[in-house]
Design goal:
With 252 residues, the chain is α+β, with helices and mostly antiparallel strands. It is built from six helices and 13 strands. It starts with a helix and ends in an 11-residue tail after the last strand.
């Protein structure tokens, strides 16, 4: 949860359309920078309010609060030839813009922009500009081993919870050696501000008092998660679909 706070603070400050904004990708992913950010996390304390870091190459940015609406679909697919795809698509809000063209619902993804262009004289990275793409949480991922072989493909739906769902699945499969199905089914703890959102259920109901004792502000909420994934296993692929939603894992 603390790492989510730090990541979302950087995302809000520096994330935007790279055709319009200098996103310091190298600085944000630099191991030294990541170690410095990790040192801010304590096993016994709480980051009361996460602020953006200063990665190398970053220009001063302000991180206003913005929201996303979850109406998204995701698939992860592999074929007999070894091709793999992870795809996430969204109409943003329910029924998108409520406009239909050729049988397709048009999205209202422009609501993902920050509608305050600057704060305190500093330009907002995700501000509205003509021809610009809004920032999105969509995070379809393909994971390779050190030899360049695909070992996992995963993605999710659920607005701002998507990065947390994808990260949870990757860590659970790669580091904890769970099956992709068990990894996706794990309960989720999510935050992109000062409050921890705990997936409503017995797991976090038992954990919540300890989190509050540490100083966390918490709320339990039925998050409606929708992750999907496939992992390479001996002789083929194994799929996983979120038991919280209508998704399925199929082999054809």
């Amino acid at each position: 949860a603390e790492s989510e706070r730090l990541a979302f603070a950087d995302r809000a400050a520096y994330g935007g359309d790279r055709d319009f904004v200098d996103v310091p990708v190298a600085g944000l992913t630099d191991p030294a920078y990541l170690r410095a950010r990790a040192k801010l996390i304590s096993a016994t304390g709480v980051i009361a309010h996460a602020v953006p870091g200063q990665p190398k190459g970053a220009k001063p940015r302000i991180a206003p609060k913005s929201g996303e609406i979850p109406s998204t679909s995701d698939i992860a697919v592999a074929d007999a030839a070894g091709n793999v795809a992870s795809l996430t698509s969204t109409v943003e809000g329910g029924f998108g813009s409520s406009l239909v063209a050729g049988g397709y619902i048009l999205n209202n993804e422009l609501t993902d922009f920050d509608f305050v262009p600057e704060v305190g004289g500093a330009k907002v990275a995700n501000r509205v500009e003509g021809g610009k793409r809004p920032r999105s949480s969509m995070s379809p991922a393909i994971v390779y081993d050190k030899n360049g072989k695909v070992v996992l493909a995963v993605g999710a739906a659920g607005g701002p919870t998507i990065p947390a769902q994808v990260a949870k699945a990757i860590v659970a499969v790669i580091d904890w050696h769970l099956s992709v199905q068990d990894a996706i089914a794990l309960p989720l703890i999510f935050t992109n501000d000062d409050t921890l959102v705990l997936e409503k259920g017995p797991f976090f109901a038992a954990m919540e008092p300890a989190l509050k004792a540490m100083g966390h502000a918490t709320v339990q909420y039925p998050l409606g998660l929708k992750a999907n994934g496939i992992e390479r296993v001996r002789g083929g692929w194994r799929g996983g679909a979120d038991p919280r939603s209508e998704g399925v894992a199929l082999g054809l």
